[in-house]
Amino acid sequence: MSTAGYSRRRAIALAGAGTVGVAAIGAAGVRSFTPPPGNAVAFAGEHQAGIVTPAQDRLHFVAFDVITKDRNRLVQLLKDWTAAATRMASGRDAGEIGAVNGVPEAPPDDTGEALGLPPANLTITVGFGATLFRDADGRDRFGIADRLPPALDDLPHFPGDVLDAALGGGDLCVQACADDPQVAVHAIRNLARIGMGTVSVRWSQLGFGRTSSTSTAQATPRNLFGFKDGTANLKLEEAALLEQHLWVQPGDGPDWMTGGAYLVTRKIRMIIETWDRSSLSEQETIVGRHKGTGAPLGMAGEFDEPDPRVLPEGSHVRLAHPDLNGGARLLRRGYNFVDGSDGLGRLDAGLFFIAYQRDPRKQFVPVQLSLSRHDEMNEYLKPVSLALFACPPGVGGAEDFWGRALFS
């Protein structure tokens, strides 16, 4: 649809909204930052919501390719996305008119499947891929190549990876997390609808059952291997550690990323049928924790600090421990997935790994190299995707939008 055609349809819808619709939306195009309802997460802030936000139960993650060559059109999309995300995070429709308040002759500017549902702690987080700055052919499509952060450099190949190019990369990413799967899907669906003609979906992933806690108020969840996952994760209450390990600091790179974080995603298929035939003692030796309590082997409590030197040499907990990785720590907020079966009588299931950090070159890369080379769990894992994005800081007010500092 042309921009002119869209504008005409929008005008028709606005005209038909009537007094009720106008009162509901206020001035067209102006975002409201009124306090959200009790089960909503504030959208605006120093950092993007959805990073240290207490991890919700459901995920819809999508990567987009930008298909326009027009910089102004891309910037307008980011403005439109920010406005829509603000509304949806507070439990409102994605558009100014909504799913049912327009005239019948015009398409609604919200798809409607979240009508009557609460915000469900929805967060929407955006990131930029390296190909947004310079595409695969080396072209600077949008005049921002000189603002590419060095930390967004290509990740190395990790031993054991069997990557599917169709499941990685992307110019833009959007992470929608919520406690209701329909709310998360609604958010992604409407951003994709708004972006039609400017972006196209490259790949996406649904997730359930968070596999990490990002707050001390949350109990540690379990992954599909049945073990507590993310016991030693960074938590939102640990402000000093977040400054050290999560948030990009002044001088780390280009100024537009200060207050942001780098996001690594990794789809890891678990060979659960083989794992399920392993003995309990073998499983615990491979993980380095007791399956029931989550305590490190030889210890009583889940949060007892292990000495990695006394854990089994090839155990996951030992190899991922900060003491053996130059102090590197990550903030993880991954999800389980089950994507049907593989056609061979096995579940296509596993972990959609999500990790935020200050610099992947100093954090994710060394930890993952250690794990991919020595982790005994690799016998039961098949990593099939890998992607890296730069997530800018949060938006600060009604005139701000995702990436404003990058494109200013």
What would you say this structure looks like, in words?
- The protein is an alpha+beta fold and 408 residues long.
- Helix content is 24%, strand content 18%.
- It has two domains: 120 residues, no CATH class; 237 residues, no CATH class.
- The protein contains eleven helices and ten strands.
- Strand 7 and strand 8 form a beta hairpin.
- The relative contact order is 0.18.
Task: Supply database-style keywords.
408 residues, alpha+beta, 2 domains, ten-stranded antiparallel β-sheet, 24% helix, disordered N terminus
Q: Which SSEs are present, and which pair or pack?
A:
Elements: H1 3-15, H2 18-25, E1 58-66, H3 71-89, E2 123-128, H4 130-133, E3 172-178, H5 181-194, E4 199-210, H6 239-245, E5 261-270, H7 272-276, H8 280-287, H9 316-320, E6 331-332, E7 335-341, E8 347-357, H10 364-374, E9 381-383, E10 387-391, H11 404-407
Helix pairs in contact: 3-5
Average pLDDT figure = 92
Give the helix proportion (percent range).
10-25%
Low-confidence stretches: 1-34
Radius of gyration: 22 Å
Shape label: globular
Number of helices: 11
Which structural category do the helix and sheet elements fall into?
A: alpha+beta
Count of the separate structural domains? 2
Strand content: 15-25%
Largest sheet: 10 strands, antiparallel
**C-alpha end-to-end distance:** 28 Å
